[in-house]
Amino acid sequence: MTYDTLAVTIGKGLCRISFDRPEAGNAINDQMIRELTQVLNICVCDAGSDGKPVSIVVLEGNAEIFCAGGDFQAVSDSGAAGDPEPLYEIWRLLSEGPFITISVVKGRVNAGGVGFVAACDIVIAEQRATFGLSELLFGLFPACVLPFLVRRIGHQKAHYMTLMTKPVSAHDAAASGLVDVVAENADAALRQHLTRLQHLNRQAIASYKCYMASCSGNPERDKVAALTANRTFFSDPSVVAGIQRYVSELKFPWEA
């Protein structure tokens, strides 16, 4: 697939999306939003060239920068930032879509770039990566980022990060919950994750993420949904067959 702002490969159940605007710090513009929307919709509705449904989506930048946020040059040229809803929908799809989403961060992340990170299921960062919200310096605030960031790190930590406007280190981001894994080599850490994640069933991933999106963490409030989900998957013949096979042959569902 050929895009102007992205480098994309899809195959063997994996979609890798690299932001590819190095001259602009991988900043988000309208073209990038359109192309990301198209790629993610392919992942939702379609399969790769090998016919295997996409179950993992990986977002990457380059060694120096993951994503600098919104394209200030485009805003300066047009005098407007455009409609924020398409980008918000991309983050919502990363958060709730029927696939595992992983951000691999090697360098700097700022502003809207934090939105991509906060929306993903798993975040792997190299030790030199940094994460910042600079919006208040310019008289605005990260309104669309915050719903995803608050869910990931909590209200007060997101509040402090927004107010301070300064970048935080990968280790500090991990301490807050924004980053899951800090690695010396993010590519090696990604390979280790994919070795395990690639065995997960897309239908199970989709059901799980749908359930988690509505899970409040309140046992009483969540009881009906929890019991319904449990009864549903234990009444699925393929689930029961997989359990029976493991008991009798000690083989996982994906093993020949």
Q: Can you offer a commentary on this structure?
A:
It is a single chain. The chain has helices at 30-45, 72-78, 85-96, 112-119, 146-153, 155-164, 170-176, 186-197, 202-214, 219-234, 237-249; strands at 6-11, 14-19, 56-60, 65-67, 100-105, 108-110, 122-126, 130-132, 168-169, 181-183. It has 256 residues and is of the alpha/beta class. The chain is globular and about 65 Å long. It has a six-stranded mixed sheet, sandwiched between helices. It is built from eleven helices and ten strands. The relative contact order is 0.11. It folds into two domains: 6-197, 2-enoyl-CoA Hydratase, Chain A, domain 1 (Alpha-Beta Complex), CATH 3.90.226; 215-249, no CATH class. The mean pLDDT is 94. Belongs to the enoyl-CoA hydratase/isomerase family. InterPro entries: ClpP/crotonase-like_dom_sf (IPR029045), Enoyl-CoA_hydra/iso (IPR001753), Enoyl-CoA_Hydratase/Isomerase (IPR051683). This is Enoyl-CoA hydratase/isomerase. It comes from Roseibium limicola.
Essential attributes:
10 strands; alpha/beta; 48% helix; 256 residues; 2 domains; globular; 2-enoyl-CoA Hydratase, Chain A, domain 1; six-stranded mixed β-sheet
Q: Could you provide a short overview of the structure?
A:
With 256 residues, this protein is an alpha/beta fold.
